[in-house]
Amino acid sequence: MSAHLIDGKQLAKEIRDRLGLDVKAFETRTGVRPGLAVVLVGDDPASAVYVRNKKKACDTAGLSVVDHHVPSDTTQAGLLDLIHQLNTDAAVHGILVQLPLPSHIDSRVVLQAVSPDKDVDGFHPYNVGRLVEGAAEFVPCTPSGVIRMIESTGETIQGKHAVVVGRSNIVGKPVAMLLMHRHATVTICHSRTTDLPAVCRGADILVAAIGKPQFITGDMVKDGAIVIDVGINRLDDGRLVGDVHGEQVRARAGWLSPVPGGVGPMTIAMLLVNTLEGARRAVA
Ligand code: GUN
User: Is 211 a residue whose pLDDT tops 80?
Assistant: First the structure.
């Protein structure tokens, strides 16, 4: 058996195309162009690539995007000033602070400073709480992209055993919540899970968000499972691979999201969706 590929690139394009029309209609109706502010601190090369891709996608979809690139020695107070300024700027409907931040800055303090009404990443404790309640306002972009990808298979989520490998605030925990709200039975695994391969083998839906290249091997996957690979890792030979061993897992899974061209483009598409949502709330 060879898994069907879940084409995140194509799915993201469809979402962006639809969103472009929605943005146009919104602007015609309200006279307001949805705007995203992207805050990048320092010169982390991976973050710079992510930010560039996010900006390009905004431009194409007709959203305005303002880039605030500040030096790596920016103080926490300076960064908070910038965020307060963006919170009160009527042309800004979404604020994204690219993570990770330099070690002298407390990310929790910074994320709490973003207005929950402009928190398109869904990282503010208010939005985390709303998500846990099952009444999400802004859903974090990667997790909502993962759910869309699972839904695109046409398979039901309800009643399935979903295993999420990785317990980060950005991916693992919110994905688990979203799956639970869709009535999956959810297990969250991490580095200290006993016999992790056996737990993974029980998964009808397996979400890999560990940050370890090709960690999920063929023997860890149930025949026919839906496998979503959130990882993106660069190997010493320059190759970009996920947290899933694509070749091995393709032979067992029913569905598999590729890397690249899987979750990455979906994250960006969901950011655009959230920015339009921020603008809708601002004019409501
Ligand atoms: N760094 C890695 N993933 C993300 C994300 O989803 N949002 C932000 N702001 N930074 C990230």
Answer: yes
